[in-house]
Amino acid sequence: xxxxxxxxxxxxxxxxxxxxxxxxxxxxxxxxxxxxxxxxxxxxxxxxxxxxxxxxxxxxxxxxxxxxxxxxxxxxxxxxxxxxxxxxxxxxxxxxxxxxxxxxxxxxxxxxxxxxxxxxxxxxxxxxxxxxxxxxx
Length: 137
Hints:
Blueprint: E1 4-9, H1 13-22, E2 40-46, E3 49-59, E4 62-70, H2 79-93, E5 98-104, H3 108-114, E6 117-125, E7 128-136
Parallel strand pairs: 4-5
Antiparallel strand pairs: 1-2, 2-3, 3-4, 5-7, 6-7
């Protein structure tokens, strides 16, 4: 993706993208995670517009990413893959061994194509089925 650039962003910039991509029926105020200001947040700019976001939370040499989202009109262009590959590379530079997420089961194919492995059993939260996916970096 030639026009896409990933850079670190302020936590509050993630909220609009989270709402539009993941929770269109919720309020913007509901998009904040309790530990947002402890995380590192990345934005993917496509054609000079913030189009994708992901939030990273590190503990020792393990990191979890949460709330990865690409705007609905920009999905299917490889932007999510580019954002996740950037995140994996970033984790390597930070000495992270394992990167993991609670993936929506409907999206697990996206993660396994990149090299993530499913761990454990699916579970339901807010009527959405998730499963843990992780990758050694």
